[in-house]
Hints:
Blueprint: E1 2-13, E2 16-23, E3 37-41, E4 47-51, E5 61-67, H1 75-79, E6 87-90, E7 105-111, H2 115-128, E8 132-138, H3 147-151, E9 159-163, H4 174-179, E10 185-191, H5 193-205, E11 213-217, E12 233-237, E13 243-246, H6 252-258, E14 277-281, E15 284-285, H7 293-298, E16 301-302, E17 308-309, E18 313-316
Parallel strand pairs: 7-8, 7-10, 8-9, 10-11, 12-18
Antiparallel strand pairs: 1-2, 1-6, 2-5, 3-4, 3-6, 12-13, 14-16, 14-18, 15-17
Amino acid sequence: xxxxxxxxxxxxxxxxxxxxxxxxxxxxxxxxxxxxxxxxxxxxxxxxxxxxxxxxxxxxxxxxxxxxxxxxxxxxxxxxxxxxxxxxxxxxxxxxxxxxxxxxxxxxxxxxxxxxxxxxxxxxxxxxxxxxxxxxxxxxxxxxxxxxxxxxxxxxxxxxxxxxxxxxxxxxxxxxxxxxxxxxxxxxxxxxxxxxxxxxxxxxxxxxxxxxxxxxxxxxxxxxxxxxxxxxxxxxxxxxxxxxxxxxxxxxxxxxxxxxxxxxxxxxxxxxxxxxxxxxxxxxxxxxxxxxxxxxxxxxxxxxxxxxxxxxxxxxxx
Length: 318
C-alpha cells in the first residue's frame, strides 16, 4: 500500500470532484499507462476503484475524478467529503483496460464520467503520434468533466462532443461512427452500463471482431430477466481437495471466506476483476461484465464475487 495526501480538491463538473493525490514525502509514485486504476482505501474502511484520469507530467501526483452517485453505496459520497490534507492509502496502479499494442486507428468513446480512463488514452495516443478520434457523450458541458480542458487540448481537433440537452448538438450516431471503422480500428469505451451494452451490440452487428472491442464498466448492468434463479452448489479447492457448500443466498466468495479461504475481492459485482479465479472443472454461470464473451464461452475463468455454477460442483484453481 502507498500512503498519499490529498493535495487539491477541484469541482470538475456538476456532481464531479477531482482529487490530486500526492506522495507523502514528495517522492515519485509508480508509473502507469493509460487505462489504469487504483484501489482507494477510504477512512471508513471502504475500498473503491477509480481510474487515473490524467497522465501527470509530475510523477509524484495521481489524479482521480469521481461522480457523486445518487445510488452510491457510500464510496463516492465519502470521496466528496475528503479535504486537502487528508491522508489515504492506495494500491499501486492496476490496468485491466490498456491500449493495445497496435498502430491501428483508435475510436475512443466516453459516456459521462466514463471519460476518466479515456482521457489518458487520448494523451498517450497523441504523444505516440497515432491515429485516433475521441467521442464524448454527456448531457451538457456543465455535467461533462474536463470539457473545457478537452476543448483546448493538443488533440482538440480529434474531439467530438455530443450533448443531448444542448440545442445545436446531438446524440452520437453510433452506427455511423462504428460503420466507418469496423475493419481497421480498435474501440475503447467506458460509461454507464446500458450505454456500453448498446454500443458494443451495434459494433458486433456491424462486424467488429470481439478482440478489438475494449470496455470498462464502472457498475454492473441490471441482470437480464432470463438469468436463472440461484441454486445451491459446491466448490472444490484444487490444491487441497476440500469441498464447500455455496448456499442459494451466498456468493462463492462468501462461502470461501466463511471457511477460512482468503480471496481478494473489491467491487463484489463482477466489474473490477480483482477476484478473477481459474476454473479447473465444472461450468461457470457467469454474471460479471469484466470477462469478454469469448472468455465466458471458454469457461476457464470466473468472478467468485458474483458468478455461480451451472454444475453441481465447480473446481477452482485455488
